[in-house]
Structures are given as structure tokens and as C-alpha cells.
């Protein structure tokens, strides 16, 4: 008996990783809020620069506007970022609406731009980064053909792939929401614990002050008792003065 053919499983993370790894380029999918849904074969320079408080605003001027550029143009848009990396913003549409944008490339296509980047990393404004981490996965392509190949594949995605992407994005957003909720609960617990510690310290301090005050009153009262006892003894047993 001939075995029935199993339906193909559409897993977006596998589809995206295969496109990136096979063509040697980065593929980063972002949503309408420019939030990265998934990063595949991302350029190590981008990871470091985008996580830097100093350089993140420069990254936002380019990749941070990828969704806006592609959705407004209603087609793929090429751009070269301030770091000299060539990128292409590719809209992922379902019907007439752009739901996601894939940033393809993040690669050097000219020796001059790569040389400039190495100079900045050695003696310029990027020397603060560890060279090992900064150049861990630098992407270099001699031409833009691979960007075009990946872009065409994304533009012609099967509906099942797009559905898989939506499902993947929904799962990631749900997990992120749960993580944020747990972080908020942890923050509230930390604040409550800190407040409890402060109150406990004040109570302990208050008790200590009251104990000191009580000890002082007890010492004073003890002195009064000694004086009273001495007075009673003197009154009951007056001194006997004998005349010579």
C-alpha cells in the first residue's frame, strides 16, 4: 500500500534562515513598529551598533525607517546606511496591505566601504567595540546579485509562507508580552520588598530608640528609689551625735 504524502509544514524561521544562509546575506524581518520579528545571519557590526546608545540613532535613520520606506514606495527600496552597508527593504504584502518588511543585505559590496569601516573600528569612533565581537560576522559581497535573488524570493512568497510568518510573529509578540509582564511583576515585587525592608528598618530603629528611652527612665527611677531608701533610713535612724 502506497503511503500517503504528508503535507508540507511551513515554518517561517526555517524559511528565513535558509534564504539568509544560502545567499550569504542578512535577512531581518520587522513589523510596522520597526520591531525586529526575527534576525537571520545578521551582520555582527549591526548588532553592536544598534545596541549602542551612541550609534543606535544613526541606525534608526536607515533600518529604523525600512518599513516606512518600503510601504510608502509599495516596492523594494535600496539604501546604503551610514556604516556603508548595502541594504534592500522588501515589503511582505498580503493583499494590498504591507504587514512586514524584510531588510535584506547589511553587507559591504565595495572594498572602499569595508576599508573605511575597519579604519573607524581601529582608530576612529568605533574603537570602543571589541574587534573580535565587532567583526565576528561581517558580510562582504562582491555584487548585489544575491540581494536581488533573496528579494525576489521574498516578493514571491507563497501564501502559506506568509501565514507562517504571521503565526510566528504572533507567537513572538505573545512571548514578548509575557516576558514584559513577568519583568513588571518582578519589578513590583522588588519595590515591595525594598519598601518592606525600609519599614522594617524604621520599626527596628524605633524599637531601639524606645528601648534606650525606657532604659534611661528605668535608670532614673532606680536612682530615685535609692535616694528614697537613703532618706527613709536617715529619718528612722538619725545619727547619734555624742558631746565630748
Summary tags:
2 domains, Beta-Lactamase, alpha+beta
Nutshell version of this structure?
With 244 residues, the chain is α+β, with helices and mostly antiparallel strands.
Please characterize this protein's 3D structure:
By secondary structure, this protein is of the alpha+beta class. The chain has 2 domains: 12-175, 2-Layer Sandwich (Beta-Lactamase); 182-236. Helix content is 57%, strand content 14%. It is built from 8 helices and 5 strands, in the order αββαααβββαααα. The protein has helices at 12-23, 44-50, 56-60, 66-73, 111-123, 131-134, 145-155, 159-236; strands at 26-30, 36-40, 77-80, 86-94, 97-107. It has a 5-stranded antiparallel β-sheet with strand order 2-1-5-4-3. It is elongated. Residues 177-182 have low confidence and may be disordered.
Amino acid at each position: 500500500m502506497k503511503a500517503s504524502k504528508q503535507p508540507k509544514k511551513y515554518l517561517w524561521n526555517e524559511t528565513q534562515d535558509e534564504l539568509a544562509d544560502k545567499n550569504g546575506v542578512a535577512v531581518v524581518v520587522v513589523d510596522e513598529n520597526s520591531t525586529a520579528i526575527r534576525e537571520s545571519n545578521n551582520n555582527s557590526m549591526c548588532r553592536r551598533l544598534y545596541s549602542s546608545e551612541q550609534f543606535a540613532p544613526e541606525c534608526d535613520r536607515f533600518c529604523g525607517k525600512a518599513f516606512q520606506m518600503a510601504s510608502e514606495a509599495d516596492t523594494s527600496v535600496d539604501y546604503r546606511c551610514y556604516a556603508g552597508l548595502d541594504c534592500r527593504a522588501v515589503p511582505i504584502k498580503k493583499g494590498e496591505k504591507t504587514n512586514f518588511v524584510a531588510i535584506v543585505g547589511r553587507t559591504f559590496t565595495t572594498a572602499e566601504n569595508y576599508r573605511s569601516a575597519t579604519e573607524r573600528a581601529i582608530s576612529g569612533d568605533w574603537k570602543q567595540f571589541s574587534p573580535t565581537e565587532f567583526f565576528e560576522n561581517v558580510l562582504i559581497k562582491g555584487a548585489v546579485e544575491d540581494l536581488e535573488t533573496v528579494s525576489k524570493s521574498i516578493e514571491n512568497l507563497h501564501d502559506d509562507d506568509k501565514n507562517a510568518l504571521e503565526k510566528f510573529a504572533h507567537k513572538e509578540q505573545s512571548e514578548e508580552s509575557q516576558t514584559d509582564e513577568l519583568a513588571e511583576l518582578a519589578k513590583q515585587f522588588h519595590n515591595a520588598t525594598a519598601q518592606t525592608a525600609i519599614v522594617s528598618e524604621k520599626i527596628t530603629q524605633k524599637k531601639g530608640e524606645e528601648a534606650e528611652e525606657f532604659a534611661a527612665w528605668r535608670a532614673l527611677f532606680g536612682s530615685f528609689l535609692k535616694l528614697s531608701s537613703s532618706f527613709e533610713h536617715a529619718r528612722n535612724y538619725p545619727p547619734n551625735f555624742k558631746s565630748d
